[in-house]
Amino acid sequence: MSARMHLSDAHRSQERDAGERLTAAAQVLGLLADRTRLALLQRLAQSEADVTTLTDACGAARPSVSQHLSRLRLAGLVTSRKEGRRVIYALRHGHLRRLVEEALSVADHQLGRLPPHD
Fold first, then answer.
1. Mean of the pLDDT values across residues 59-67?
2. 24, 52, 53, 83: which has the highest count of C-beta atoms within 10 A?
3. Count of CB atoms situated within 10 Å of the CB of 104
4. CB count, 10 Å around CB of 21?
5. How far is CA 117 from CA 105, 106, 109, 114, in A?
C-alpha cells in the first residue's frame, strides 16, 4: 500500500470520527433543548435526587418527569440506582454539569443579567 493511500484512509477515518463526534454532541444538545429536561439536569447538578424531589424542583407532573428521566438515562446522561423503594438519579459526569451551567450563563447574558465578556 502506498503512503498516499494510507494517509487518505487515515484522513477519512478522522473525518468519520469527527462526524460521529458532532452527531453525538448534537444529540446531547437536543436533549438539553427541552425546558423540563434542562431543569432536571440543573437540579441534578447540585446533587443526586429521587423523582419526588425532581418533580418539586422542576414543577412538572410526576409522569412527565419520569418520562424525561427515562430519556436522559437511556441517552447515558444520568444514572439511577435503587435505594429501598426509591430510585435515585445522578448526573453521569461533570461535563454535563458544566454544560448546563454554561447554557444557563448564556441565557443570563441574553436576558441582560450579565455583561458581555470573553
1. 96
2. 53
3. 13
4. 10
5. 11, 11, 9, 9
25's enclosing H/E stretch is helix 3-32
- Rounded CA-CA distance 98/18 in Å is 22
Residues 6 or more apart whose Cβ sits within 8 Å of residue 46: none
36: amino acid identity, one letter: T
**The residue to which cell 458532532 is assigned:** 22
Instruction: Indicate the angle between helix axes 62-74 and 51-58, nearest 10 degrees.
Output: 110
Which is it for the CA torsion 21, 109, 60, 94, positive or negative?
Answer: positive
* Of 28-32, 44-48, 86-90, 112-116, the least confident: 112-116
Handedness of CA 111, 116, 117, 118 (dihedral sign): positive
Q: What is the pTM of this model?
A: 0.82
* Backbone φ, ψ for residue 77 (5° rounding): -90, -30
